[in-house]
Amino acid sequence: MIRLATATAASMAAPVIIPASARGAEGRAAPSERITLGFIGVGSHGVSMNLNSFLPQPDAQVLMVCDVDGNRVKAAAERVRSHYAGQNASGRAALIDMGRDFREVITRPDLDGVVISTPDHWHVIPAVLAAREGKDVFCEKPLSLTVQEGRILSDTINRYGRVFQTASENRSKWNFLHACELVRNGRIGKLHTIRTVLPQGFRLPIQPELPVPEDLDWDMWLGQAPWRPYCNWGMERCHYQWRWNLDFSGGQLTDWGAHINDVAQWGNDTEYTGPVSVEGWGDFPPDGLYNAAVDFEVSYEYANGVRLICKSGTPGIRFEGSAGWIECKWDSFACHPESLQTEKIGPEEIHLRTCPEREQRDFLNCVKSRAKTYYPVEVGHRSVSVCHIGNIAMKLGRKLHWDPDRERFVNDPEADRYLSRAMREPWTL
Amino acid sequence: MRYHTNRLTCCVMVLILTAITVIQSPATDEKSAPYDAILNYEYGQSRLALSEVEEAVRVAPPAEALIIEQRLIDTLTHYQATDACRQFVCRMLRRNTTTPTEPTWRRLLFFLPSPTPPRVKALAHFIDDPTLSHMALFALQEMPSPAVDKLLRKTLADMTPETEPALLIGIIGAIGQRGDGKAVKLLAPFVESENPDIARAALQALGHIATPKAAKTLERFQVLPMALNQVRLESWLRCADARADKGDLKTAAAMYMHASKDYYPIQIQVAAHRGLAHTGRVDTAQLLVDLLEEEERDLRLLAAKLLSEITDDAAALDFAARLPELSPESQVIGIRGLAARGDRNASLYLISAASSQYSDVRVAAVMGLAEIGGARAVPIFINACSKPDALGQAARTGLYRLSGYGVDKALANALVHPDAQIRAILLDVLTARGITDALPEILDACGDGDARVRETAYKALGALAGDDFYPAMIESILEIPTPTERETMQTALASVVGRLTNQERGLRLLTQAIRRADDAAKVNLIPLLPRFGTQAALNAALSGLSGSDALRTASIRALADWPTPAPMQTLRETAEKETQLTGKVLALRGYVRMIGQSAQNTDERLKGYLEAMSLAPNDGERRGIISLLANVPDSKALESVKRYWDNEALAIDAQSASVRIAVATAGADPKMARDTLNAIIAKPASPAVKVQAQEALNKLDQYRNCVVSWMMAGPFAEDGKDGAALFDIPFAPETSDARDIQWNLVSGAGDQPWMIDFGRLIGGENKVVYLQTRIISDSVQPARLELGSDDGVKAWLNGKLVHANNASRPAELGQDAVDVTLKAGENTLLLKINQGGGNWAACARLRATDGSALEGVTIKP
User: Fold this and answer.
1) Does A346 touch chain B (CB under 8 A)?
2) Distance from C-alpha of A423 to C-alpha of B775, rounded to nearest angstrom
């Protein structure tokens, strides 16, 4: 399946090893100097959020961009070239390699890390293979397509001692951080309920089969997912809107759940475990291209007695305790008592890990220090697992009991079947 | 989709199966109809029929599971079934669960073999079909039946060299995922396949199986291409993990040791060393030192990672003691690891490293001490924090993070440090850390000999002090000699007043101080009076009006900032009579602000603004009042601003305000609005105003009879009640005691000026808001009240409920309509709009009962 980069221009030939002199370092750039990165998936989020955030970092250099959509590779490469073009004086190269197969990126010996901004069903495979090649990994949320995939990812990252960042800005935002620190330090008394609200999902009528665009590798785009013919997904080609189909994602429950339910796990001090039961209902469109739940409500119970109620609506989170409550929207913070607004957390108290300069900066810092990032792989896996078992409970339509230690349902082989999926050949882990 | 030669074979088998099925099947009944409907399903067609089957599978009681399974199998194997249909059925077979018909006790008693579930038999026919193999495995992979393992092994054994590689990889992958230990022998030959993808899949599968036999098999293949050897070693490490998980640490350690050889890829060495450390069967401290002495940077970095992971505290401390033996770079890595570990017992070693001869080590040590240092590290931070280099930066940052018992006290005690820069830094740190216990020392710092330290101390008091230190701050401001420092203390006091629990005492102390203060100090004390806002405070502020010019200006400023309209009349008189321009302007602005606070309707507002206009001393103030008149939807407001169309300095503002008033009154008086806009277009003060007027004119007809300006009250909420529940809870505007309510003027904006967007104005969830306006009718006449709302709406006309719809919908004009009768003269229309979540908006229009324009009415809030 490995393909060479599309050779339409000299600079687009197969990977070019940039001369050390051009990179301002001998051989592979030392992590203490400049961290070399390859980008896997350079669509809208990959460029606007990740490429645009990494390019200005003084200690990072992007050497390669890769995508199964030729249009996107070219556009991203141009973005890198134009950014670095004016910086040659500082020793940065304006050279950028392009690829269509992620394996060209992960096998490059001159890269320290990879940035994965692919669709959800394409997160774990490249991340695992990159870790096996000794790369540090920055990967978009939600981390996995199934619970078992996430377990393999977390084990692999830890086995190889890699630094891993789950890409989410929530842990860098003051309102969520302040809320979780207040909750963890008992400022609203005993926490008993967490309410998370995620956006509603979407519907789209069935779309007719279309010829695959010439510069799109559709079979590679499908990857491990069941085969289906190419069609328009409602936006640009097959991009972005795949997340409303359960073959590729878990709908809003995983897409936004990886943000907001992660904050719930953070505030509840259950980042490394999960709930013990789950039940819920979802409005799964019976027709149309999208089949993930549009409206939903899922209720979880934790071993510490806390209830998490996650439903669709205007996104936000509310922590309710015996002595007050805190509610955060994306950029807002409301609370009772009002004094919590300016409440300070003392030095002897619990301070949560954050990085106000956001997830990309935190990743680079940790590549150097080898410390855990603020949203490490196990935590990212656990957060999305909460969402996955929510989808399973909605699909089965009954209450399920979850064993977070074994990561299996309790005496429920029917539900267990949904914890993994056979990958379409030739993909295996 | 791929098509292959063995597809023909598969199709023949399906035909035979179908024939058998047709013969054996019960007669087609009503319940099997949905299954028949999906036989010809193709991608791109409606999924409704599939969803019907899926729902049937989901809700089927256990007793029907076998029937459902048979229906699915019949569909899967039907000769007419399309590939897309079969793909769907495979998904359903993954879900559907049945129990064996043969009881387990009977099988065990009579040595009967485990039966092969019918679904496994059916799916077996597609497992080597290139088109459907994946979906067959999709159904089979998680099926807990030994028959599946048997099937997969048999299929693998039957594969020939001509078999499609992708098929082989899929089956090998499924065997691996199922961890079938009996398949090890079968898998081994595939490791030597000429196709590297097949060999890789086989090696991975052995790693997933991870039995001792699998490990032994992996050991056999010592000579493999480099890429494959890496996969083999990964699987070998998985086998070692499995041994460790089972408690066989000795074997696991030996296996990790084997993979840690320096001729293996560096990432394998990293993983092997990590595994080895976690077995606890090596000298961990020595391992960490050894790793840090490695040439490979990845191995050195692993030491830091291991330090944050291992549970052996003694080993970590042994390692910390050996830090000085290491190279500076390795010391830095080790220090970071110790800090990430969070063990305070290691802080002594980091304190020692903070005086290293190597600057990188010193910086790393200070950064590490910020995490684990505690009180004993405070002197290190204090001595370094004023330095301009990286060490100073690390110390300053660390002072905010440093934790542990006694740290706060040590920082407060250090305020006597001889270096003024350090004292100032410490005050900032104490403030940021919120250390109220340090307030006595901070208060002492207000008398510091260094001005920068004093100013920082004032700010610290402003951030931290409350009732206890307020008197001392009041006394202190009387002693401060310079205006700049007094202003800083004034700002600090303003913050503290907001936190006082005993407001009465606070005001008494302030007024006493004002009486004792000289004029210079009074200027900084009087502006604090509005923070109390009581009559006593007002009296104190008024007393300053008879003082010196500076004192008089301070008093006017205090009155202008008053939180209520109480000094409104004084301000109006001052604005009229004051001779000093500053005082006059301050008074006028305060007066104008209070008009907005106190006016109950547009008439009062208009009257106030027109009077203020007559008092304005210059065009700057007139411009401000014109911008306020723009929000008053009244013909007199329009006439007032029109007077300034010919004033060169104010023409643009006046015409822009005229456009806004014309739009807001268009519903009630379209002719006046149209004439105004045409006049502006004919003689615009600027091209932008002309565009603005033209756009408004184009949309004028849409505004006809719409209510575009309202008085708004709220939001109102009640704990534990959602938006729907609040709909029927009466709040003050609905009750007779409605006079004390704060009403604010609101208007629509943009392309839909009739739509009031509460999401933009207020936002939030689970609230209600009220809108009120007046409809002046020339006569008694019937009318149709058209309403739109998001969420629901209630309407009262002249105090009588005329409409209620607790809806959840996006707002549109004319969603609800109710016929009403307007009395001659003034009618009051009150709306209540509730909000659960999402968007929140409302709109209203009056029409004749036949839907035509309603004549003879004026609408103004």
Assistant:
1) yes
2) 69
**Residues of B with Cβ-Cβ distance to A155 under 8 angstroms:** 241
Contact yes or no for A429 and B337 at CB 8 A: no
pLDDT of residue B752: 72
Q: Which of A179, A387, A327 shows the shortest CA–CA distance to B837?
A: A327
Q: Looking at CA atoms only, how far is residue A209 from chain B in angstroms?
A: 6
> Would you tell me which residues 16-35 of chain A have a C-beta closer than 8 angstroms to some C-beta of chain B?
30-31
Residue of B nearest to A320 (CA): B720
Q: What CA–CA distance (Å, rounded) separates B20 from B23?
A: 5
Looking at the structure, tell me whether residues B393 and B414 fall in a common domain.
Answer: no
Nearest to A370 among B43, B174, B301 (CB): B301
In the block, residue with structure tokens 């842990």: A171
pLDDT at residue B797, as a whole number: 93
Q: What is the pLDDT of residues B403-430, one digit of tens each?
A: 888 999 999 999 999 999 999 999 999 9
Q: What is the dihedral of CA B356, B362, B364, B368, to 10 degrees?
A: 90
With residue B690 as reference, give the H or E element that holds it.
helix B687-698
Q: What string of DSSP letters covers B778-841?
A: SS-EEEEEEEEEES-EEEEETTEEEEEE---S---TTSEEEEEEEPSEEEEEEEEEEESSS--E
Residue B372 is predicted with a pLDDT of 92
- Please tell me the total count of domains within chain B: 6
User: Would the CB atoms of A422 and B333 count as touching at under 8 Å?
Assistant: no
The answer to whether A226 contacts B174, with C-beta atoms less than 8 Å apart, is no
Residue A79 is assigned to a structural domain of this protein:
yes
- Number of domains within chain A: 2
Q: What single letter denotes the amino acid at residue B689? A: V
Q: Tell me, what CATH number does A184's domain have?
A: 3.30.360.10
The three-state secondary structure class of A400 is strand
Q: For a pLDDT cut of 70, what percent of chain B falls above it?
A: 93
Contact state of A288 with B302 under an 8 Å Cβ cutoff? no
CA B281 to chain centre: 46
Report the C-alpha gap between B76 and B59 in whole angstroms: 20
Q: What is the pLDDT along chain A (429 residues), one digit of tens a residue?
A: 222 222 233 333 333 333 333 333 333 334 347 899 999 999 989 998 999 999 999 999 999 999 999 999 999 999 999 898 866 555 455 678 999 999 999 999 999 999 999 999 999 999 999 999 999 999 999 999 999 999 999 999 999 999 999 999 999 999 999 999 999 999 999 999 999 999 989 888 899 999 999 999 999 999 999 999 999 998 778 999 999 999 999 999 999 999 999 999 999 999 999 999 999 999 999 999 999 999 999 999 999 999 999 999 889 999 999 999 999 998 889 999 999 998 888 777 898 999 999 999 999 999 988 889 999 999 999 999 999 999 999 999 999 999 999 999 999 988 999 999 999 989 988
Which domain does B40 fall in, by range?
A: 7-101
Q: How far apart are CA B761 and CA B758, in angstroms?
A: 5
CA distance B77 to B312: 60
H helical segments located in A46-198: 52-54, 70-85, 102-106, 124-132, 147-159, 174-184
- CA separation (Å) from B651 to B217, B642, B843? 92, 9, 33
Q: Considering CB atoms only, which of B44, B169, B267 is closest to A132?
A: B267
- CATH number of the domain at A108, please: 3.40.50.720
Question: Cβ of B408 and A197 within 8 Å?
Answer: no
Question: Range of A302's domain?
Answer: 171-203+235-351+377-419
Quote the ipTM score.
Answer: 0.88
Query: Please, which residues 136-155 of chain A have a Cβ atom closer than 8 Å to chain B?
Result: 155
Q: Are residues B389 and B444 in the same domain?
A: no
- Chain B closest-CA separation from residue A96 CA (Å): 26
